[in-house]
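Render this sequence as a predicted structure.
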Amino acid sequence: MIENVSHDNTARHEVLVAVFQIRDGRLSVLLWQRAMAPESGRWSLPGGLLRGDEDLESSAARQLAEKVDVREISHLEQLAVFSAPDRIPGPRTLASAFLGLVPEPADPQLPPDTAWHPVEDLPAMSFDHGVVLDDARRRLAGKLSYTNLAFALAPPEFTISGLREIYHAALGHQVDATNLQRVLKRRRVITRTGGTAAPGRAGGRPAALFRFVDAELRVTDEFAALRPPS
């Protein structure tokens, strides 16, 4: 649930973005090192102060482009407002957090102070950014169950085994490829392209290529959940 934003005119307002991508088969998040005190050198989510002439989503896109040179965002949505009075030292600062996704095989050229980190091997993070990141991971996993959000992580064309690996990385547990294909086809989320993938070293029958039907978020099964296999 998004909290009510305080009407205290003395509070500052910043925008933070938890940006995820599947890299080398692992769900990774984009972090940058703070250059200024407090907590200089600590890893943080990209972000900065909201300008008076911009809305929250425009600010989030600007922060990513200016601070970490990331422009290939396939999905961006508001996550929550974090408003604890002591969330950072100094003047009270509210934070509007966003979830952002970068698809395969995009490979943004990052500044030296910015890097992708696998979510299962995170460094110490500044302030409450670890809490924000945890919320973003839960939002991503939840929406993969009942929407077509995987379109924002996948390449334009993929095999079912490749798509299974994306779901595995993002959910944190194994997903059965046959069941995944059946569920997504029933929900009319994916369709065959008519092409096949290049055969691997072992040879065998070339795997069919699929694509997502839509490149915009939609609810496909409001009460669905992709659970670990029993």
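Summary. The longest strand covers residues 12-23. The helical segments are 56-67, 129-146, 160-171, 177-186.
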